[in-house]
Design goal:
Distance between the termini: 41 Å
Structural class: alpha/beta
Protein name: MBL fold metallo-hydrolase
Number of strands: 12
Order of helices and strands: HEEEEHEHEHHHEEEEEHEH
InterPro entries: Metallo-B-lactamas, NDM-1-like, RibonucZ/Hydroxyglut_hydro
Strand content: 25-35%
Pfam families: Lactamase_B
Helix content: 25-40%
Oligomer: single chain
Largest sheet: 7 strands, mixed
Shape: globular
Strand order of the largest sheet: 1-2-3-4-5-6-7
């Protein structure tokens, strides 16, 4: 059954208390995972106003509750330049992402402008970037309360040297009880893209990208919902096909 609160807000609920929205212009995905007294947002949008929108909408979905955690899947402008809107929350990223956000701010700003962002908004967002306090080298389990745990996994390099996936475990249902079985949800960042071919910029690590997708598939399994950084949610077969296409494209196994 569709949760009308999420639907009216423009968010898509993928499992109870787990959803995403597709942001305009770059069709970038942001996610929300709701616990008890805590909530995690996945990715921050492309500007401070977009980050404010995400945080405001998330807190409305929480019924006035607080966003307490933010996970950045990788350090590209359309996923991180809204991070200043999340000041005061616990920010997570893959090991090394902090160095990019500190030392490569000018390149993030310039990349945003090259792709059509407002120059003043891009400059403000770069100046105000929030540095992750928690750096994930392997796996990190967050307890959001109410039995909701979320796994952050450093599965890269691939799309960038610092790719972080977010796994929300599923809930097995009672046999014979319709609708009780909730799927696992995996937020993939731009390791997976549905609305276009995966983009391999100068910071991509093509030789390791297929292996990163193998790790994603091992985390989520065959029945998970996989949420690309851009585009519609997909299944394991889509991720596997994209993995094989990337292997052929870059000449790796």
């Amino acid at each position: 059954m569709v949760n009308t609160v999420w639907a009216v807000s423009g968010w898509e609920e993928l499992a109870p208390g787990v959803g995403r929205c597709r942001l305009p212009v770059w069709d970038c995905t942001a996610g929300l995972v709701v616990g008890e007294g805590a909530a995690l947002v996945v990715d921050a949008g492309s500007s401070v106003p977009e980050g404010v929108r995400l945080r405001t909408e998330a807190q409305e979905l929480l019924g006035g509750g607080r966003v307490t955690h933010l996970a950045l899947t990788h350090p590209h402008f359309d996923h991180v330049l809204g991070a200043a809107a999340f000041a005061g929350v616990e920010v997570f990223g893959a090991v090394g992402v902090d160095r990019v956000l500190v030392h490569d701010r000018e390149e993030l700003r310039a990349d945003a402008v090259r792709n059509g962002a407002d120059p003043l908004e891009a400059a403000e967002a770069a100046d105000l970037l929030v540095r992750p306090r928690h750096l994930v080298s392997g796996e990190w389990t967050l307890d959001l309360g109410g039995g909701r745990q979320v796994l952050l996994a450093n599965v890269g390099p691939g799309h960038t040297p610092h790719d972080l996936a977010v796994l929300v475990p599923g809930t097995p249902g009672t046999p014979g009880t319709p609708g009780a079985d909730c799927p696992e949800v995996v937020f993939c960042g731009d390791l997976v893209e549905e609305s276009g071919e995966p983009q391999a910029g100068p910071d991509a690590v093509p030789s390791h990208w297929p292996a990163a997708l193998d790790r994603l598939l091992a985390l989520g399994g065959e029945d998970a919902v996989y949420v690309p950084g851009h585009g519609a949610a997909v299944d394991a077969a889509f991720v596997r096909a994209q993995r094989d296409a990337l292997a052929r494209r870059f000449g790796v196994s």
